[in-house]
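Need residues for this backbone.
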């Protein structure tokens, strides 16, 4: 009787198209806290879901911008972990589309080239007033280790306040990214759902779309986030443990040189 990981490795071996759907948990082992982790520093008493809103920015732009600048500095100091690297390696021997809820750039820095950011990116701020993205990135603000309130820079076009180029609660996902992600989910043979609690919609719809379209869905998470069923599997454990193990189980003909 093959082990769960051997079963999943066989699914990947037989797959042509793979979607890798990731959440904050895949970056946890790079030292970036997930949304279910307690907040620290000056934001310890803030609820991320309250800070990730246009209202919070209207009320206290410096607090929200300071939080994102601290997060950006934190990401800049982090490195892709073995899970990010294994996904990039897998893409050298299978057609892999990464659909991430994360706003960090660790997939790209690990070498993944086809990455769809459903919730935007820390790397690209935009104007709160005219929605344009400035050509030059205004990240000269000093960020302490615990972060601080920082007045957001101004838009060079309309002098409005710059805001993080991410999707806040109550905002729509970028239409082109959503369309591409749904198409990839509908066309894939296997969807690996890695490090996500699967509670924030519409992003959490992606594994459901893939399953309804006939794909096998594999959840990789230390928590049991789904009930195994037909064509749905759970590998309980850390991403940086299971993902490299899966890639190493592919036959020698599959392993990238
Ligand atoms: N490996 C794999 N999974 C892990 C690891 C790990 N090392 N550590 C934690 N996890 C799992 C947790 O068990 C949890 O299920 O990662 C998941 C993280 O869940 P959330 O913090 O809810 O993050 P995510 O699912 O990405 O949240 C979705 O919510 O706050 C919004 O916009 C934000 O994109 C985010 C969205």
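Answer:
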């Amino acid at each position: 009787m093959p082990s769960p990981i051997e079963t999943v490795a066989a699914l990947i071996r037989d797959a042509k198209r793979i979607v890798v759907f990731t959440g904050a948990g895949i970056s946890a082992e790079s030292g970036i806290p997930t949304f279910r982790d307690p907040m620290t520093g000056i934001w310890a008493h803030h609820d991320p879901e309250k800070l990730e809103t246009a209202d919070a920015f209207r009320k206290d732009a410096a607090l929200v911008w300071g939080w994102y600048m601290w997060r950006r500095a934190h990401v800049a100091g982090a490195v892709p972990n073995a899970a990010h690297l294994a996904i990039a390696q897998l893409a050298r021997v299978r057609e892999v589309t990464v659909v991430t809820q994360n706003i960090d750039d660790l997939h790209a820095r690990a070498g993944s080239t086809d990455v769809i950011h459903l919730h935007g990116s820390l790397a690209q701020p935009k104007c709160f007033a005219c929605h344009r993205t400035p050509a030059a990135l205004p990240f000269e603000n000093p960020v302490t280790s615990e972060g601080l309130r920082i007045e957001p820079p101004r838009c060079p076009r309309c002098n409005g306040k710059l805001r993080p180029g991410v999707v806040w609660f109550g905002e729509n996902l970028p239409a082109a990214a959503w369309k591409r992600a749904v198409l990839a989910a509908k066309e894939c043979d296997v969807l690996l759902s890695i490090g996500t609690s699967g509670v924030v919609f519409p992003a959490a719809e992606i594994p459901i779309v893939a399953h309804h379209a006939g794909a096998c869905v594999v959840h990789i998470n230390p928590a049991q986030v789904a009930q195994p069923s037909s064509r749905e599997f759970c590998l309980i454990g850390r991403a940086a443990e299971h993902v490299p193990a899966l890639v190493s189980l592919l036959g020698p003909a599959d392993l990238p040189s």
